Amino acid sequence: METSPMEPNRTLVVVTQAELRSLRRLATFLSLSTTIAEQARRSPGNLGVELRSRSPRRWCTMTAWTDAEAAAAFVASDPHRSAMRETARLIRRNTFARFTTDDALGAHLWPRAFDALDASRALEASRDLDAARQPSPDRR
Fold first, then answer.
1. Is 51 helix (H, G, I), strand (E, B) or coil?
2. pLDDT of residue 137
3. Domain range for 54
């Protein structure tokens, strides 16, 4: 996660959406998510953690941080780092987004979080389409 300066007294919100390959993997995914959420809650700079389902196979996390450095330190440490390797085999797609807010973490931020995730997925799809339109090196 790249770090960038934030306005003073703003909260960094990081949201993720994991789309499971199969519902048979849900129990394992939720167990890993619980472990990671507990780690986040204990991490320096964490202001809150929430997990929510958008559908039976699409699960989102929303974490709040004092700054990007605190969020980056959490992502780079275990058990998060190790769990992400294991999670990679459970999910079809993972989407990330982030925004800053003056608000405390809570249910009122989920609509904004979902909008940010949807915008991130749309951008990814656009990039994939652009890449597909580019001729491959052997066709130039």
1. strand
2. 64
3. 11-134
Distances (CA, A) of 103 to 89, 106, 127, 139: 35, 8, 32, 51
Give the residue carrying structure tokens 């472990």.
35
Q: What are phi and psi of 49, to 5 degrees?
A: -140, 135
CA 68 – CA 51 distance, rounded (Å) = 20
Position with higher pLDDT, 119 vs 131: 119
Is 30 a member of any domain? yes
Cis peptide bond upstream of 111, omega within 30:
no
Pick from 68, 3, 91, 77: nearest CA to 36: 77
- Per-residue confidence (pLDDT) for residue 104, from 0 to 100: 87
Residue 4 forms part of a structural domain: no
Structural domain contains residue 3: no
Domain total in the chain: 1
Whether 138 shows a pLDDT value over 80: the answer reads no
